[in-house]
Amino acid sequence: MADQSNPSFSLSAWLRGNWPILLVLAALALVPTFAAATDNPFLIRLFTRAVIFSIVAVALNFVLGYGGLVSLMHSGLFGVGAYTVAILAFHDYEATKFLGLFAGTDNLAISMPLAFLCAMGVAALTGIISLRTSGTYFIMITLAFNQMLYYFFVALQQYGGEDGLQVLANLHFADFNITKRTTFYYVAVGVLTATIFVFARLVQSRFGIILRATSQNERRVVALGIPPLRYKLMAFAISGAVTGLAGALWASGQAFVSPSDLSWVRAGDYVVMAVLGGMGRVWGPVLGAILFVLLEAYLPSWTQFWQLPFGIVVVLIVVYLRGGLVDVLGLTRSKSASNTEGGHA
Amino acid sequence: MTPILSVNNLYKRFSGLVATNDLSLNVMPGETHALIGPNGAGKTTLIAQLQGELAPDSGTISFKGRDITQEPPHRRSQLGMARSFQITSIFPQFTALANVSLAVQAQQGHGFKFWRDAWRDPALNGPAMEALATIGLDHRAQIVAEDLSHGERRQLELAMALAMKPSLLLLDEPMAGMGRQDGQRMTRILSGLKKDYAILIVEHDMDAVFALADRVSVLVAGSMIATGEPQSIRTDAAVKAAYLGHRS
Amino acid sequence: MTLSLFIEQSLNGVQLGVQLFLMSAGLTLVFGIMNLINLAHGSLYMAGAFFAAMFIKITGNFLLAIALAIPCTAIMGILMELIVLRRFYARGHLDQVLVTFGLILIFNDLVRMVWGVVPVPMPVPALLSGSVEIMDGVLYPAFRLAILSVGLVVALGLYVVVVHTRTGMWIRAGASNRPMASALGVDVQLVFALVFAAGAALAGLAGMMAGPITAVQVGMGEPILILALVVTVIGGIGSIRGAFIAALMIGIVDTFGRVLLPHALGSMVIFMLMALILAWRPKGLFPVHG
Predict the structure, then answer these.
(1) Is C249 a residue whose pLDDT tops 90?
(2) Mean pLDDT of chain A
(3) C-chain residues within 8 Å CB-CB of A144?
(4) All structural domains of chain B with their residue ranges
(5) Which residue in A2, A31, A278, B96 has the fewest CB atoms around it within 10 Å?
(6) At what angle are helices A20-37 and A284-302 packed, to 10 degrees?
(7) CATH topology for C3-116+142-280?
(8) Option in C35, C95, C233 nearest A318 (CB)
């Protein structure tokens, strides 16, 4: 026990064990500079995608890696956040009212928190049903709920249905214009940094420890006098809310949302990103998301059939690479070093 | 004196098989009560009903004078009933200390605290170290649980039960799978705990049972056939016939 | 709603129901017995349709093509089990999800390589291309009627096999208690392979029957896979009877939901039904495991 007298979270202690994330974030922050130097603006677009997917993958990993919950509905929750922003912007632009009740808004300071709350609400409601079941049931039910959300947005003809919804309003955050490509990219990196920090604290809090314990041995948690369901539900709602926030960023950055953002294949992709990067660390999934987005962007230029090698890579990872990239790079904490943390962090 | 745990006319059937048959049992405060019986007598089924994992078909269970027959397991734990499992049940990826801290946390109440670092919280680690010291595992506090030896994991399990500050310990074969030396150490630890806790212990190791127990109950085919002091149980003809004789 | 529309939609609902049952029978047994969640089950559905379309092109004979395509799909299922999935029975569900997700990507690209990206047409056989007057003034496509009948016959056959034969007894024993089944001397490996082959053949058959109605194209198995998962979960994982009842229920509710309810609600109605049923019975209507 390093420091019995100081119960508060120590950032410097955390960074001592997690320094590589600083390198990753610094590298991400340098992307616009690099893109300007090489006159390759496509890079900013690509990395905006990577950063937003990173936020989802980190949020997903909170329930997946720490809670043992294989959720296949995170693309749906992402979509809820994205559509919240897009639909409010749509009504603002058209000067109509949502369901004839509320005016729209192009102010992200309003619509982003709403996206966060809507996704949290959907996650909580679906969580109440799905978390009462275990293992396989949970996977299948989250997948079904994802499809429910997908078809729901496909069916909303007013908002573009299958074709998606263009954001025509000029979005702004309070008095700031954040939609300029480079500015927006830095905002996204900032949100990612905050997300990592928040989840790093969460997994070491009393709440987070109960969640982790539940995934290791739920029966024992019950025998200790802790009812696990409410902790899992809270974790799922938090994860869903952050995912919705990522969706809101997506809708603002792309100025476009479509049901394909909610497809269950994308939900599977998020799981792949988390596992590929490494579920043992809060920030591991960031590596997975970046690699995923790069592969997705550059594999098709080598071969038309890029999903085939990609599928094989996925299968091989599952068979041989249990710890993800974090493990390959030798960044998994050794057991003796884990002691001050009370467990593998 | 009112019993701390009182089981009355408990029945449990599994599709034709009667696992618990009109079973009644009292555990007095401060008493170490051993439950013995041949394999398949229904001992673990009984423990599971006491702890709330299984619901009895009929009959009542009261704990500290309160009917808990319908209470879910986590409520019973909160009321002060701590269970150790026959098959070691711990959190393999946490250190020994973290395992016990979690039990302390459960005992302290709700865990909706999202910000403070619980690994460094002396309010958790202090009592946890105490519990580890009580069972002599404090020198292994920083070892990840899956790297502990079998005997140490059994001890850890007991430390977790103690950290819940229970008024009744339900110990399901605490010496299961232990060698002679580990078993003797566990017997010493348990005899140290005797004075502070009411204990209901299921155990096959007869030396341990007769060394520890104030009273012994014998369970055969779901029914309680005898309850009494260790000496009288040792000489009880029916028990010999049903159990002891058949073992030797 | 007029009576004729009601009858037509009822038939459509039952027809979707039997197709869903063919899909979910394999899924539920594979999960119940091998404890494996197989997302690539939809790829077998797709493979069945592509094999059938290919054999029709070669032989020009619909029935012969079906007769050739079914064993092909079954063999594909066996290979999938033998080469990959067998290693994953004991692994966690996350690994199973990932590996079968990877398999979907692989199969989709393999199909693109072999058959191209353009949907392959699958003609309805001449004999079944017309309509049948099922009652006064109510016409119903003969092909859909044929699907319905074949589906019901196969479902009935499957039920008889599972519930009344020795093989079926092994399968049910395996689904409810695997260690017990092997202790009773059931050749578990053989049962696994058998169940996988049968499940693949049924999924393939469902795909072949859907081919002429929808199009034979890459990714066609995925929407139906998710409906089949809903059926499996509602019916209770591992239960053939549950799958059959849930499949008909979903088929009918989905069909009428789309006709009767506003568009956005109609597409969600079966998922809401699932949520309601699971809120009431978390293990489905006919739970197999305790």
Answers:
(1) yes
(2) 87
(3) 226, 229-230, 233, 271, 274
(4) 1-80+166-248, 90-165
(5) A2
(6) 40
(7) ABC transporter involved in vitamin B12 uptake, BtuC (1.10.3470)
(8) C95
Classify domain B1-80+166-248 by CATH architecture: 3-Layer(aba) Sandwich (3.40)
Decide if A207 and B113 are in contact by the 8 Å CB cutoff: yes
pLDDT band at B198 (very low <50, low <70, confident <90, very high): very high
- Are A72 and A142 within 8 A, CB to CB? yes
Predicted pLDDT of residue A174: 83
Tokens of C96: 């199973």
Q: Which tokens belong to B153?
A: 């994991």
- What SS3 state is found at B173? coil
Task: Kindly list the domain boundaries of chain A, sorted by start residue.
Answer: 11-341
Greatest CA separation for chain A: 61
H or E stretch including B34?
A: strand B32-36
The CATH number of the domain covering residues in A11-341: 1.10.3470
Residues in C touching A305 (Cβ below 8 Å): 109, 112-113
Helices (H), A217-283: 218-223, 228-254, 264-277
Please report which confidence band the pLDDT of residue A339 belongs to, taking 50, 70 and 90 as the band edges.
Answer: very low
Average pLDDT over residues B204-218: 88
Asked if B80 has any chain A CB less than 8 Å from its own CB, the reply is no
**What is the rounded distance in angstroms from the CA atom of residue A319 to the CA atom of residue A329?**
18
Say if residues B171 and B202 touch (Cβ distance below 8 Å). Answer: yes
Amino acid C180: pLDDT: 65
| Residue B14 Cα distances to B17, B222, C96, C174, C286, angstroms | 5, 12, 33, 20, 19
Chain A contact present for B119, CB below 8 A: yes
**Rounded distance between C-alpha atoms, residue B120 and residue B60, angstroms:** 43
Give C80-122 pLDDT, tens digit per residue: 998 888 888 888 889 999 999 999 999 999 999 988 888 888 8
pLDDT at position A4:
41
Q: Are B19 and B12 in contact (CB under 8 A)?
A: yes
3-state secondary structure of A172: strand
pTM, two decimal places: 0.88
Cβ contacts of residue C119 below 8 Å, gap of 6+? C215, C216, C217
- In this prediction, the answer to ipTM > 0.90 reads no
Distance, in Å, from the CA atom of B168 to the CA atom of B80, rounded to the nearest integer, reads 6
Structure-derived torsion over alpha carbons of residues A26, A28, A30, A36, reported in degrees to the nearest 10: 180
Query: B 123-142 residues with CB below 8 A of A?
Result: 123-125, 142
Q: Residues of A50-75 as b/e, b for ≥16 C-beta within 10 angstroms? A: bbbbbbbbbbbbbbbbbbbbbbbbbb
pLDDT at A30: 92
Mind listing the pLDDT tens digit for each residue in B51-85?
888 899 999 999 998 999 999 988 898 889 988 88
With bands split at pLDDT 50, 70 and 90, how would you rate the model's confidence at B123? confident
Burial profile A164-186: b = 16 or more Cβ within 10 angstroms, e = fewer: bbbbebebebeeeebbeeeebbb
Please answer whether residues A132 and C280 qualify as being in contact, where contact means their C-beta atoms are separated by less than 8 angstroms.
no
The predicted model gives A228-235 an average pLDDT of 94
Place of tokens 């348990």: B190
CA closest to C104 among chain A residues: A311
pLDDT tens for residues C175-220?
Answer: 666 666 666 666 777 778 888 899 999 999 999 988 888 888 888 8
**Could you give the 3-state DSSP secondary structure of residue B13?**
strand
- How far CA A282 is from CA of A25, A271, B149, in Å, comes to 14, 14, 30
